[in-house]
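Complex record, two chains
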Amino acid sequence: MNHIELHYSLRKGDFKLEVDTRIPAAGITGVFGESGSGKTTLLRCIAGLEASTDGDLRPVHKRRIGYVFQESQLFPHLTVQKNLEYGRRRNPDTHRSIAEFASMLEVDRLLDRSVSDLSGGEAQRVCIARVLCQEPQLILMDEPLSALDARRRSNMLPYLDRLHAETSVPIIYVSHNIDEICRLSDHLVLLDNGKIVVEGGLQETLVRIDLPQLSGQNAGAVLEAKQSRYDAEFDLSLFEFSGGELWVPGRQGMATARLRISAGDISLSRAPAESSTILNILPAVIEGMAAETASTQLVRVRLGASFLVARITRRSLYELKLQVGDNVFAQIKSVTVRY
Amino acid sequence: MDIGPLWLSLQLAFVTTVLLILLGAPLAWWLSQSRSRWQPVVQAIVAMPIVLPPTVLGFYLLIVLGPEGAIGSWWVRLTGDTLTFSFTGLVIASCIYSLPFAVQPMQNAFESLSRSKLEAAWTLGASKLDAFFSVTVPLSLRGFVSAIVLAFAHTLGEFGVVLMIGGNIPGESRVVSIAIYEHVETLNFAAAHRLSLALILFAFVILFGMFLVNRRWQSR
C-alpha cells in the first residue's frame, strides 16, 4: 500500500511540533488530541501554510491539497456555483464533473444561492464540495463540524460517510471529538503536545488501555460488523463481528455497521447472568488490565479476533479476583451501542 | 462661469486618484501584512501629510522639485521643462499630499479581511497574486471606493501645496481653489461665489454618493 510521509518540525514560542511518520494513502486518518496538541499546526504544515522544515519547497497553491477549515471560509462575493468553480478552474486534469460532487453532498439545489443565505451545515457541505471539485491528492479537514450544533453535526456525518465510500482521495481528519474519530477514521494518530503518542489501525489502537489520552470518556472499542438477522417484532438487529454477535436496536436494512462500545457500557462477570435485561452476554478472555483512576480499572478482553475495553471498579477486580487469561462474560447493554 | 480652473482641478484629481490607487494599493497591502520593524516607520511617513501644514510640504517639494533640486534638476535634463509651476509637478505634489487618504481606507479594508479566506484561496490553487485580485480586491471594494472618493475630493480641495509649487498659471496650475482665492483678493465676490458653490455642491454629491453606496453594501 502507498503511504504519505509526514516529516515536520516547527517551533512556535513554547510549542514544538515534531512529527515523523507515514500514514496510509487511502481512507480516513483521524488525528485525535486535546486542544493545543498541535493538530491544526500539523495540518497547516502539510498544506504549506506554515514555514516548516519539511524540505517541501512547493508553494501552497502548487501542492494540490484540499483544506476544509473549521469555519466555512466560502467566498461571500461569489455564488455557490462560482465557489465550486474557483478551485477547479485553477487545477488542471480534473476528471469528474462539478455536478457529481454537488450531488454527492446534496448542494446541487444551492448552486445559484448567495453564500450568505446558507445555513452553517450547508456552508460546510459546499466547502467540502469545493475542495472535492479541485480534485486534490489529499484532503485535510480541520474539525469541520466543530462550528455546528449537535443536531447539524449528526446530520453532517452521513455525508462524510458517503465521501469516504465514494472517493478514493485520502483524508486527514482532525478532531478532539472521539465520537467523530471513531465513526469516520480507519487509521488513528494520537497527538499530544506536538508529538505522536501512538498511531495505527483504528480498532487496534483504540483498545490500548495504557494511554491516559485513551482513558476516561475516550476509552472504548469499535467493531466492524455485518447484519445477520433483523427481528421485526422487537425492532432489533443482530450484527455479526469476528468474535461474536451483538443485538442492537433498530438499524433495519443496514448491511454493515461500525459499532462503538464505550468502556463504561460493559460489565464483566464470572458466570453468565440469567434473567437479565442485558441482551448481549459474550464469552471473552481477559487480555490486559491497567489502573485508570484510584477507583477504576480498564480491562481489555478478547472475543475471537476482536477486542473490547471494559471499565470496572478496583473493588470488583479484587472481589472477583480477575486476572489476565481468565474466562469471563462481557455484558453489553444493547441500547448503549452507538452508530 | 470660469470653467478653466474647475476643469483643471478635475483633471488633476482624476490623474492623482488613478496613480494613488495603482501605487497605493500595493503599499496598503504591504502595510496591512508586514510584521517588519520598518512597518511603523513607513506607516508614520504615509500619515505625515495629514498633520503637516501644506506649506511645509509645499516648501520642501518646491526645493526638491525645483530646477536646482534633486528630482527637479534631473527632470530638467530629461525633458527640458521644470517640474515646479507645471501640471506634472502638481500631480507629483498631489500624490504625496493625498497619499494617506488613499492608503488608509485600503489598508483598513485589507486588515479586516480574514487571513483564512486567503489561505482558503491558496489551498484551492490560487497564487498569491491571483488570490489578491480574485479574493482580496472584491472583498475590499468598500475600501477602494472610500480611497477613490477621499483621494479625489482631497486633491480637489488642495490649496496650500499648489500655491507653494504651482503658482497661478492658467491651464497649467490655476486650479479652482487658487482661482477662488484670486477672485476674493480682487474683490470679485460674484465669481468667488460661483466657484465656491460649485465646489460645495460637488463635494456634497460625491460624499453623499459614497455613504449611500456604503450603506447599500452594509445592508447586503
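Note: Chain A has two domains: 3-206, 220-336.
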